[in-house]
Each structure stands twice: as structure tokens, then as C-alpha cells.
Amino acid sequence: MGGYLWVDLLINYNRVVTDYLFKxxxxxxxxxxxxxxxxxxxYHDQLLSDLMLSHAIGDICLVGPKGCGKSLIxxxxxxxxxxxxxxxxxxxxxxARELLQQRITNENGDTLWQNTPLVxxxxxxxxxxxxxxxxxxxxxxxxxxxxxxxRELFLPDGTxxxx
Length: 163
What we know:
Blueprint: E1 4-13, E2 16-25, H1 42-57, H2 70-81, E3 85-89, H3 96-100, E4 101-105, E5 111-115, H4 117-124, E6 127-131, H5 138-142, H6 145-150, E7 153-154, E8 160-161
Parallel strand pairs: 3-6
Antiparallel strand pairs: 1-2, 4-5, 7-8
């Protein structure tokens, strides 16, 4: 993670243009993301502004129906802040343990713990997209509470991630 980026946004609320200057965390080096052609509309400008303001305070959860452009907005958001993105596609039967680490077998037949994209994003300071979070059981979703509130995680292999 790098430093901070000062963002200057002109926001048009009901035909009243307001200039906002605020500081948000950002990476120092440009990300390798090349966003697709992004056609700015007043709606998207407003949404990006709201995301920036929310990000200056804390974590963001962007919810919307399938096909409404969430991925495009997130790609644009990440591009503006030089954030690399880590994607994690979730499924209904995913357990709390599998949300953090998965057991794998190496070529010698030994079992090892492999970090999921969620843990990789936490370690490397990347933007995490939890695609399909609505599919998770409540018990699995609760396992994210410690990460979100305290920025700490106890992993199944015994490793402890600290702020």
C-alpha cells in the first residue's frame, strides 16, 4: 500500500455543483488494470464520487442487480486509485475456513494450506471483490467480522494477520 491521493471532485447535486477535495488511500504505482472504455454519465460520476467519499471513511459494499455495471464501476474506481484488484467468486457451500485458506496437495503428496484471494488481498493491500457474497451462509459471513472491524485474522494454518 502506498500513501494517500488527494481527490478533487465536482459533484452535481440537483443542478448545484459542489467542489470536494478529500484524501483517500491509494497505491503509489499505477495498477496493471486497463479498464475498458468507460463512458462517463452524470449517474456514474455521482456513483464514483459516493464511492470515493465512502472509501475515505472505510470499507465499501457495492450491491446491485446482475448486469447493472458494478464490475465496470469497480474497475474504474480501482484505476483512479491505482489499486490492483483481487477477485474471489463465492459459492453457497463455501465454509468459513475455505473463505480464508484451502488445503492443497503438492507433488510429493504433502498437504499444505493455500491462501485464498481474500487473504492475498489483505496481505498485499489490494482491492478485494467478493463476487456473490449474497450466496454465503450467515455463519460463513460472520467469519469476516474480525477482518472488517479489527483488521485482524486468525487463519486455519495458525498464522495470525495483524493490522
